[in-house]
Amino acid sequence: MQALSTAESGKRYTIKWMFGNKNVLDFLHKYNFKEGSTIDVIQQNRDWMIIGNDGCRLAIGCDVAARIQV
């Protein structure tokens, strides 16, 4: 397992677990980013990253991505 914030752009990962602010987790769950989901890391910067699944793409901060294990 590794933090999503250290994942490579262009690769597909499965979310193993997530923790953090309830509002942030509720937002991610609303767009089907949850434990067991497959996600793509589309683009990454040192402060943010863009992740996607079959339904949508989201930009998240690396501080949020650090709390998601893939």
Question: What does this molecule look like?
Answer:
19% of the residues lie in helices and 34% in strands. By secondary structure, it is α+β, with helices and mostly antiparallel strands. The longest helix is centred in the middle third of the chain and has 9 residues, at 22-30. The N and C termini lie close together (5 Å). The model has no long low-confidence stretch (mean pLDDT 94).
Summarize the structure.
This protein is of the alpha+beta class and 70 residues long. It contains two helices and six strands.
- Global structural class: alpha+beta
The total of helices stands at 2
Radius of gyration: 10 Å
The secondary-structure element order is: EEHEEEHE
Query: What gross morphology would you assign?
Result: globular
Rounded mean pLDDT score: 94
> What is the CA–CA distance across the termini?
5 Å
Biggest sheet details:
4 strands, antiparallel
Fraction in beta strands: 25-35%
Taking strands numbered 1, 2, ... along the chain, how are they ordered across the largest sheet? 1-3-4-5
Query: What oligomeric state is this?
Result: single chain
In helices, the fraction of residues equals 10-25%
Strand tally: 6
Low-confidence stretches: none
